[in-house]
Design brief:
Elements: E1 3-8, H1 23-40, E2 44-47, H2 59-69, E3 74-77, E4 80-81, H3 87-101, E5 105-110, H4 120-123, H5 134-148, E6 183-186, H6 190-198, E7 202-205, E8 208-210, H7 217-235, E9 243-247, E10 249-251, H8 255-261, E11 270-275, E12 278-282, E13 286-288, H9 290-298, H10 301-305, E14 308-312, H11 319-333
Parallel strand pairs: 1-2, 1-14, 2-3, 3-5, 4-5, 5-6, 6-7, 7-9, 9-14, 10-13
Antiparallel strand pairs: 8-12, 11-12
Helix pairs in contact: 1-2, 1-11, 2-3, 3-5, 6-7
Length: 340
């Protein structure tokens, strides 16, 4: 059995074909979709974070709202760009969202992806330290975030506080026990997957990674997952590692499905550059009749290696259609692959 969730990029635009014309539409429909997904029996509701774009950007209000409206489904991100974050404030936000949800937060973080603006984190008031790259800065902030999530006191109390303090050094509040063990790292390379394992973070691997061997995407991703698990075992962590992969998967069970996605059935891996000096490989999407889809997905090595599958959804098509997309996978595809 696999955990199956959806991943929404949260697009909106004032376009005649969009059900999400405004940011408010996207936020409210994201909550409604998470509620509906829980009712369907889906395991997770995950949201992407992009700054300076007509997409979801401020995750914690949304995560808290979803947590308050649901009771079982995992709630997460994929991923928060740590270059833009204040780790201290983020500990407080994450702790609050996790407590509201009853400990269901699965928080995906990373150094970030290509941006809409040049060095966008500078506009948020952040600069790499001397000798650091922006990626180094993101990883440094991530480690600081992880450290403060432990709930160990580190701040010297005021001898004349407004309210009485407990004895000893103070920690950030609210503290949510167990959240430190539910942090994921979005890794685009084998090396950062190993780094995530060494630091006790679960692995999120998307439909993009650096091309490190020229092999098909799903093979490279499966190799990345195995390296992560080996590093986790060597590190001796006490909690079990988890791995998610994301895919665009559409079961063509209606004329509307075929109209929207039937032309994507023959898509292949693609190569390109997300950094000027690093070639990347982009994994193909899947769109086919259920029987064919089952055969194709059974050959995807990375899906077989992962314990969690995140289905990227076309959020602009609205809640009703996305419920159909997700239910088609649960009903027509998941049983044939042993996921349900």
């Amino acid at each position: 059995m696999k955990k199956i969730g959806f991943l929404s990029f949260g697009h909106w635009s004032n376009h005649p074909s969009y059900k999400t014309r405004t940011a408010g539409d996207t936020l409210l429909q994201s909550i409604d979709l998470a509620v509906a997904a829980e009712e369907l029996g889906l395991d997770g509701a995950y949201f992407r974070v992009h700054h300076f774009a007509a997409q979801l950007a401020s995750p914690f209000p949304l995560l808290s709202a979803v947590g308050a409206k649901t009771s079982k489904i995992e709630i997460g991100t994929g991923v928060i760009d740590m270059r833009y974050e204040n780790p201290m404030y983020m500990v407080e936000d994450a702790g609050a969202a996790d407590l509201i949800s009853g400990g269901r937060l699965q928080l995906g973080i990373s150094r970030g992806s290509p941006e809409q603006v040049i060095d966008g984190w500078r506009y948020f008031g952040y600069e790499p330290q001397e000798g650091e790259s922006d990626a180094d800065m993101g990883r440094r902030k991530a480690l600081d975030f992880l450290d403060k999530l432990k709930g160990v006191g580190f701040a010297k109390p005021n001898p004349y506080p407004m309210f009485p303090n407990p004895p000893g050094l103070l920690r950030l509040e609210p503290y949510s026990e167990g959240l430190r063990n539910r942090i994921w790292w979005g890794a685009a390379s084998n090396a950062t997957a190993v780094w995530a394992a060494e630091n006790g973070m679960h692995l999120q691997s998307s439909t993009l990674k650096y091309d490190e061997s020229g092999k098909p995407f799903h093979v490279q991703q499966a190799e990345q997952i195995r390296l992560f698990r080996d590093a986790w075992k060597k590190a001796g962590h006490q909690h079990e590692p988890r791995v998610s992969v994301s895919r665009s998967i559409f079961a063509l069970v209606s004329d509307q499905d075929r109209y929207y996605f039937g032309h994507e059935a023959s898509r292949n891996d693609k190569f390109g550059y997300i950094d000027s000096d690093k070639r990347a490989i982009f994994g193909k999407g899947y769109a086919a009749e259920p029987d064919q889809l089952i055969d194709e997905l059974a050959k995807d090595e990375a899906i077989q290696e992962a314990d969690t599958l995140l289905l990227t959804i076309p959020n602009t098509l609205g809640v009703e259609y996305n419920v159909h997309v997700l239910s088609a996978i649960l009903e027509h595809v998941a049983p044939g692959l042993g996921w349900r």
